[in-house]
Amino acid sequence: MNESIRRALASPITIATYGVLVVPLAIGWFETALLTPLALPGYLIYVLGTAIGNAISPGLKLKFYWIPFLVGCYAIAVVVGTIYDVLRG
Amino acid sequence: MRRRQMLIASGTVVAATATGVMSQPSGDNALLTVAREPGSATESSTATETILSGTVHETTVFERDAPRDGPTAMIFGGVHGDERTGIEVARDTTEWYPDAGTLVVVPETNRIAVDENTREGPEGDLNRHFPAGKEPVSDLARGIWDAVERYDPDVVLDLHRSLGIAGVHQQYVGQAVYHSSDSYGDELASYLNDVAVPWYMPLHRISARRTHSGGPLLFQKAIRDLDATGYLFETTDFMLDRDTRNEHTRLAAAKTLALHGLLEVGNN
Ligand SMILES: [Zn+2]
């Protein structure tokens, strides 16, 4: 695989961004009391994602939005990782 | 690289957990203590009554009179039988001691639906059985309404749970206080946002929404026919676990009673 693509998909920045978006929210998912300010970015993406999804497809249960959420956050993380790489040269 | 990624991941978990414990909303133990403390309980009297007895809908009504005069408040749980938070919190409130007035609680309003853990009972959605200008449209609704008329409440609070959030998810009604025009709906919502909703869950903030009294809901009939001040509280199970839903609902019940003078805050 092309080195720059490999880096974008799995660089430390990509992984860290993904972790920040997903991990604090996942923890709060199990127990609301464990949700923290660190979950705010993931929370906003998730809730607004369900709001858009619910407007388009009212029949779909809200918990099914975890799948597009996980995929979407990874896409965001790859973009962040790529931008970081490009800026660093 | 693996190691570094592991460190980043585990660091995130630890930080998230630690800040979670430190940044919880304050709750309001003082208010709940006032609600639960017997105070001058020797003077207060309690009674239970079975309504619709001898029918499949038979259910219990709890009444507690405070030593001092005051308004009568009626709390309903289980109008929808699968909304457990309203049932559990209404059961809690049967153990509360008002400082003034009378607290009347029906924890399992739609008893068959509560037993079967379904939204509707065999007669359909109880909260659509109170149309304007007509008798309640089912046996259960008529039996419930007979009891409501006898207690003639000044305040009615109906406890519910939605699957989403009003204003965020277009077909859902959660995290909202629906209230009559003469109520403390705005005060109740802003109180709950202060003590129960963390600032970092901004889309879970509770909104106050004025209801009209023309609809077929139980609390709307109480507003319409008895001139009661009506509230319907909806929490959500969207991202809120059972303890959190119950806490939001419990604080909503306690604050409603306090706002209407049944609980005296600051004297204990
Ligand atoms: Zn309901």
From TrEMBL, chain A:
Alphabetized UniProt keyword annotations: Membrane, Transmembrane, Transmembrane helix
Sequence intervals crossing the membrane: 7-27, 33-52, 64-84
Protein name as annotated: Uncharacterized protein
Native source species: Natrinema halophilum
TrEMBL record, chain B:
Gene3D superfamilies given in the database record: Zn peptidases (3.40.630.10)
SUPFAM superfamilies linked: Zn-dependent exopeptidases
Superkingdom to which the source organism belongs: Archaea
Pfam families for this protein: AstE_AspA_cat
Cofactor list: Zn(2+)
InterPro entries in the record: AstE_AspA_cat
Protein's UniProt name: Succinylglutamate desuccinylase/aspartoacylase family protein
